[in-house]
Amino acid sequence: MSSTVTTATTVTRRGISMLRAVAAGRGRLTCSSEPDLFVDGLPCSDQFTAHALAHAGLLRASEPGPLGQPVPAVLTPAGEALLAAA
After folding, report:
1. pLDDT digit string (tens) for 44-70?
2. Cross-strand partners of 73
3. What would the 3-class secondary structure string for 32-62 be?
4. CA 11 to CA 8: how far, in whole Å?
5. Which terminal Cβ of the chain has fewer Cβ within 10 Å, N or C?
6. Could you tell me which residues are beta bridge partners of residue 38?
7. What is the torsion angle, in degrees rounded to the nearest 10, for the CA atoms of residue 57, residue 21, residue 14 and residue 54?
8. How far apart are CA 81 and CA 64, in angstroms?
9. Cα dist. 58→11, 14, 66, 78, 83 in Å?
């Protein structure tokens, strides 16, 4: 059994879990070029993966906000499709 889902970007099981948290409305992203992910109000322990998910276009901030301030995170259509295939 594979531990990753492969598309144009390889996403680990941890990344899939992060996408699931965002899909459930539990994620927030900071407004910056390297957005940090918070889940249930706590900083995600793997910000490298959070950055990769955002740069791959799988999740994004739901609205603009002040630099460095967290706003609700949402999945993009690509993130929804990847999660549906996981």
Report:
1. 999 999 999 999 999 999 999 999 999
2. 61
3. CCCCCEEECCEECCCHHHHHHHHHCCCEEEC
4. 9
5. N
6. 28, 43
7. 20
8. 24
9. 10, 14, 22, 6, 9
The answer to whether the CB of 31 falls within 8 A of the CB of 21 is no
Query: Residue 49 and residue 14: Cα distance in Å, rounded?
Result: 8
Amino acid letter for position 52? A
Q: Which two tokens stand for residue 25?
A: 């409305």
pLDDT recorded at residue 27: 97
* The two three-digit tokens of residue 29, written as one number: 């992203």
d(C-alpha 60, C-alpha 76), whole Å: 7
The β-bridge partners of 4 are 12
One-letter identity of residue 74 = V
* Widest CA span in the chain: 43
18: exposed, middle or buried (Cβ count in 10 Å: 0-12, 13-18, 19+): buried
